[in-house]
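Example record

Each entry pairs one chain with its bound ligand, adenosine-5'-diphosphate.
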Amino acid sequence: MTVAALDVSTFAFTEAAPAKVNLYLHVTGRRADGYHLLDSLVVFAGAGDVLHYQPGPEPLNLQITGRFGRVLDAAATGADNLVLRAAHALQGLRAGQAQGGTLVLEKKLPVASGIGGGSADAAAALRLLDRAWNVQASRTDLLALAQTLGADVPVCLLSQTMRMEGIGENLTPAAHLPECGMVLVNCGQAVSTPEVFRRRDGAFLPRAALPESWADIADVVAFLKQQGNSLEDAACAVCPPVGHVLADIGGQEGCLLARMSGSGATCFGLFATPQAARQAADRLEDVHPAWWVWGGGLV
Ligand SMILES: C[C@@](CO)(OP(=O)(O)O)[C@H](O)COP(=O)(O)OP(=O)(O)OC[C@H]1O[C@@H](n2ccc(N)nc2=O)[C@H](O)[C@@H]1O
Ligand SMILES: Nc1ncnc2c1ncn2[C@@H]1O[C@H](COP(=O)(O)OP(=O)(O)O)[C@@H](O)[C@H]1O
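Structure tokens for the complex follow.
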């Protein structure tokens, strides 16, 4: 249900759900069940959905607003929504903790776009409701719950720079990036993750030799240029506009690196400063008003 009338500024609890960005993503192998093993450096952008919660006597319900709320309505409504699935999973962790109230999800991130919007929403719901319901679940319990909700939910629960391996369950802290800017661009075409994995070909890539610290953003970019996104070619085949998006980001003044995130179609550009990224985003938005474009800093 998309509702515009609720005044979320009066809601007691708010939680950000930042976009996940895979700075590099190597498919390193394949499990017996067909899932692909990954090695990825994951960061979180200042862009994101926002989740609000007001406890109340009514049964727990979710309303969705925002630019992409309507898209999500068609794709995942009611109890299937990752926010409600996360809420119910958390209730299951502590019998007797069930509470009612209204959740409002401001859906600002494009759906099925490689930046983990649904995973970020689920993770935000776990953080928010753990606090609101005073569940006080341990980090281990929350991470285990997160894993049952999706491969990217554990990293989104932490929402900090991490190296992600396995299919998302192996997380190790990674050095924070030096101050830099990021542009995110999505052409508006949803991309199917299973199809992109199915179309991927080529050799498995090795695990990257990730440094323990960065001197500056040039150091980060030099490292990232030695890596790649193993799913980029497949995503370009499924969704040819990805190639144009990459060229347009890469052609922006000050762009240090342009690459696709996750299984696409969202692509990112790295810049020296958040201001340079915002300026590039403004220019891209002028030329492509139908695209979703964001520019700013990292979390
Ligand atoms: C590629 C990544 C990288 O962060 O990001 P997104 O593109 O989703 O943002 C994730 O690993 C996405 O993981 P997840 O969110 O679980 O993918 P799902 O949509 O549930 O997976 C759909 C299907 O893709 C294939 N799949 C997915 C993940 C994986 N490591 N190997 C796979 O082979 C499987 O066929 C799976 O059934
Ligand atoms: N709250 C939610 N936000 C986004 N997608 C959701 C949500 N709940 C369920 N979904 C479903 O999860 C799928 C993956 O969406 P999303 O996380 O945006 O993809 P990606 O990780 O590729 O960016 C979508 O097709 C959508 O149907």
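The longest helix spans residues 117-132.
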